[in-house]
Description:
A: Alpha-Beta Plaits, two-stranded antiparallel ribbon, B: alpha/beta
Amino acid sequence: MAQGTLLIQTDRCKGCGLCIRACPQQVLVAGQHFNALGYQPVQLDEALRRCTGCGVCAWVCPDLVFTVYRESAGRAG
Amino acid sequence: MARELWKGNEALAEAAVRAGAEAFFGYPITPQTELLEYMARRMPELGRTFLQAESEIAAIHMVYGAACAGVRALSSSSSPGISLMQEGLSYLAGSEVPCVLVDIMRGGPGLGNIQPSQSDYFQLTRSAGHGDFHPLVLAPSTVQEAVDLMYASFDLAFGWRTLVILAGDGTLGQMMEPVEMPPMRALAVERPDWALTGAAGRSPRVISSLYLDAAELEQSNLRLQAKLQQMAATQQRWESFCVEDADYLVVAFGTVARIAQSAVRAARRAGIRVGLFRPVTLWPYPRQPLDAICPQLRGVLVVEMNGGQMVEDVRCVVRERVPVRFLGHLGGVIPMPDEIEAELAQLVSLSGRAAFS
Ligand code: SF4
Ligand code: SF4
């Protein structure tokens, strides 16, 4: 499966948790710290290395928090 | 009309603009700040007034001043800010000057947190300030309903010369949903016949809440009470879902009513004949329609994001005819549909009679 990673604009996150529920790989978690808005922004659990870059999180997030990167097959390896 | 994705706070602001708001005075507080931010940009763009006051106390008194001149003015805040505004709210009520206020409720008491809550229910419906009065309190449960109620709120405020409070919670303020915005209204040109507009060519008018003579103050209060009674009789708004054949009833308002609706659907699938009653006006409380459903019921479950506030109104109406259970979460914790279902199952087993269709 493709490997993916995310750029998370944590300052925009309102901690609603929609992405956490929607992620098929269950690699998103609520962060422990608070952002300037006062919410606990979502984090990618990088240790799991299971993000596939599918983009579901970016689709469901109402506040445009995610930029999704997916490893391209052509340049892999 | 286009369906657009709007964040609750911004949608409320735009709806107020379209309803003809001429002036906004406020002070930032999460989870309501986007409303003020939106107004800071939008109102000057239209040549209308936006002013960030030095405090909530100042903001509400600016609203009072503008409203005395017959201007459609509003403010918005969240729970701790509403507490600060209470002095002004009482003065507005005492002088029967109309205005609109938004409360995007957050966890309390004290500074609490910025998570959604419904714990201002008592404050808004019972004690929005000292003295004998109630504001008209509207509790939308979707962003679209928030827009529609905001659009109607100035007419209600001016029609009744009353304070109208839109009571949402942090979820509604932050949530983004598809909305159809109502058309932009022309600003009112005529000022009401009580407004202070300069006394050119007529005798001066006075707006005050001060009556040093006891009998005079009683008269003023009795007039206010008569109006409140009339409002209570004519302004009750509510919505019900699946109540026709219901043996059990869930009562919830605002965001919680939506969660409860999911639970009601699931319980229906499991064979429990349950319905949902959702007050849209928190004051006046929709007592008559709730009372009318009571005779068919075996039990009632009230769900709120507070320690049990609206449940007191429900108990007043139900009058021990059937058991009333309460499920509440506090401090910004949001009740989940499966918890509500579990409570319903408890209610069904406790009320002791066959409940399955
Ligand atoms: S891109 Fe897909 S796998 Fe990666 S975090 Fe988002 S939803 Fe989960
Ligand atoms: S959906 Fe967006 S706003 Fe909500 S928790 Fe995820 S990143 Fe944050």
